[in-house]
Write a structure and sequence with these properties.
The protein is an alpha/beta fold and 285 residues long. Helix 5 runs parallel beside helix 6. Keywords: Antibiotic resistance, ATP-binding, Nucleotide-binding, Transport. It is found in: Cell membrane. GO terms for molecular function: ATP binding; ATP hydrolysis activity.
């Protein structure tokens, strides 16, 4: 479960994105769009199961966009198709107006991705993993080394850069994978459950980094199960249910006069009651 963010984070941790990792330099190669990510009719079918049933969603550039939905709603499948990680059955996605499947190289330069539950090279050290990621993006080795050092310091991992990723805590893993997502200076970050199983200090560090990224013109897209987190940090939100986008817009538009959790319950038909289990009480038997 995600943790509440703390307010007494040390001042020198995670407050600034290194200057040379400002978002968006690659976007100048293509016409810029006011829509950072446009999802158009995305369908994904696994055998007889329809995971995504024609999803459409526009995510404005510069927004902090939350994607929420019940387990199995299609959030991860949608984001995977929208970031070239999973081939759609039908439909497509555009990043800054460019079709990701027609120009996947541009999409991979422009997107920074933090997937949830994907295995990584955990027998590398944290520093080696970030360096390797940068080299895979075709960056100059000197630039990769400099950015790796800067990112480790900004994320509070400078003393753990030589430690194997397999020995990292959950919070440290999230932070090192965020460093991998940032090293090539993308303009759009797509994060699947970035705060899940993360301690409060690490969560605050990650949030500070994301806010700084957005303040420099970047777009942040994240999925989450925790309504309070989304309501607190996101400017926009989309609700996914049974493979469809059932509501989207600014936070105020989606809430429609309610709190986000109540609106979510109404949209997906969820029940939060625990049921009348009269027998569920402490007993000596």
């Amino acid at each position: 479960m995600e943790n509440e963010f703390v307010s007494d984070t040390p001042d020198n941790i995670g407050l600034e994105l290194p200057a040379q990792i400002s978002p968006s330099p690659q976007v100048q190669e293509k016409p810029h769009s006011e829509i950072a990510l446009s999802i158009r009719g995305l369908v994904k079918v696994f055998g007889d199961f329809v995971a995504c049933a024609g999803m459409n969603l526009d995510i404005p550039a510069g927004s902090f966009y939350g994607i929420v939905g019940p387990n199995g709603a299609g959030k991860t499948t949608m984001l995977s198709m929208a970031t070239c990680m999973l081939t759609p059955t039908a439909g497509t996605a555009l990043v800054h107006g460019v079709d990701i499947w027609k120009d996947s190289a541009y999409a991979k330069r422009t997107l920074g991705i933090l997937p949830d539950g994907v295995r990584t090279f955990d027998r590398l050290s944290g520093g080696e993993l970030v360096t390797y990621t940068g080299l895979l993006h075709g960056m100059e080795p000197e630039v990769v080394r400099s950015r790796t050092t800067d990112l480790l310091q900004a994320l509070g991992l400078d003393t753990a850069g030589d430690k194997l990723v397999m020995d990292y805590s959950a919070g440290m893993r999230k932070k090192i994978l965020l460093a991998c997502a940032l090293v090539h200076s993308p303009s759009v970050l797509v994060l699947d459950e970035p705060f899940e199983a993360v301690d409060p200090i690490s969560a605050k560090t990650i949030l500070n980094m994301l806010n700084h990224f957005r303040s420099r013109g970047g777009t942040v897209i994240l999925s989450s199960h925790v309504m309070d987190t989304v309501a607190r940090i996101c400017s926009h939100v989309a609700v996914i249910n049974q493979g469809q986008v059932v509501a989207s817009g600014t936070l105020a538009e989606v809430e429609d006069g309610m709190d986000l959790f109540t609106r979510f319950e109404n949209l997906v038909g969820a029940r939060s009651e625990g049921g009348d289990l009269a027998w569920l009480a402490p007993s000596s038997n």
